Amino acid sequence: MTNQRRALITGITGQDGAYLARFLLDRDYEVHGVVRRSSTETFERINSIRDQVCLHQADLLDQLSLVRVVEKSRPHEVYNLAAQSFVPTSFDQPLLTGEFTALGVTRVLEAVRLVDPAIRFYQASSSEMFGKVQEEPQTEQTPLWPRSPYGVAKVYGHWITINFRESYDLFACSGILFNHESPLRGKEFVTRKISDGVARIKLGRQQKLKLGNLDAQRDWGFAGDYVRAMWLMLQQDAPDDYVIATGVKHSVREFCEVAFGHVGLTWQDHVEVDQALLRPADVNTLCGDARKAKTQLGWEPDVSFKELVRMMVDADLERVRKEAT
Ligand code: NAP
Ligand code: G4F
Fold this sequence. Notes:
single chain; Rossmann fold; binds ligand G4F; alpha/beta; binds NADP nicotinamide-adenine-dinucleotide phosphate; about 40% helix; 10 helices
């Protein structure tokens, strides 16, 4: 083993995993990633860095596979980003979501504790834990009231991380991240569904865009900014928990307005509300207060809401154009 810093990322094939892997490679880390076995590869987001990272097969459902990966890669830092992360699926598959998103965290923590308790650990907690918000804006002290099986599972992951820190003195941090988006966002999430829809409608491949709750408000930031916060948490003298957010909220309707407006279209001409897309219980509004991260980590977001929307629409326009040629 060399003196080079080593990081292990679960969920490296996801949006955040892809941005974090690039961020760490730029800082000269040796980057290892956990991938689960599938009959077709899901490496699209990390294709461009495929030969610079070391991938290991393991699964959040399988304790020994996680222990083996930690033993093999001997990381200084573990970023636990893997999860069943889509809220509607958590209503359809609550048990599986609990296994991945809640108990999966304990499995990764146990692997860290068994192999090397000096490893620094990051847990991907979520603003979805605030659910039916008890105060605005939300801070690290705001009481949790999750509104989906996903949110409930994330509350478990958050508290087991704190519990392992307090019980075993692990350097374990929980980042309570508000919604963050990018051109690499999965297409089922509302921002990417809109940017993809706008591009298809603009280029004549689609007529209408069906959405659910247009009144929902989110504090949307750029994923590239948010992975920097994850890393900063693990570089501090002591482990702690941090809210990461922009402090500004917008509705789904406003997202549509900016996205369609960017290509000279009027959103009301193309968006239809589909009742089937409403959730059994939704999170109506989220807005974070990231003052602790600003003061202690020196973290602030660089990309504004409008820049983010335009970046996503432009990327989808380019991709959809290429699909046609
Ligand atoms: P994402 O794009 O959905 O990626 C999820 C990753 O988890 C994928 O790499 C997926 O692998 C992997 N995974 C799922 N189940 C697994 C299992 N059983 N074993 C191993 N790997 C598994 O999510 P994201 O947006 O990057 O988010 C990263 C993390 O942050 C998640 O934990 C999410 O819940 C949390 N979070 C996200 C946001 C946000 O706004 N993006 C906000 C707060 C918290 P496959 O490629 O094989 O499916
Ligand atoms: O984009 P969404 O699916 O994200 P949601 O539910 O806020 O969850 C995301 O952010 C969490 C952080 O708070 C993460 F932890 C989680 O993993 C995930 O990344 O939906 C945002 C809002 C919801 O209120 C939803 O009801 O948009 C509303 N919405 C309206 N129409 C829609 C749609 N959501 C989706 N996915 N699709 C629609 O057609």
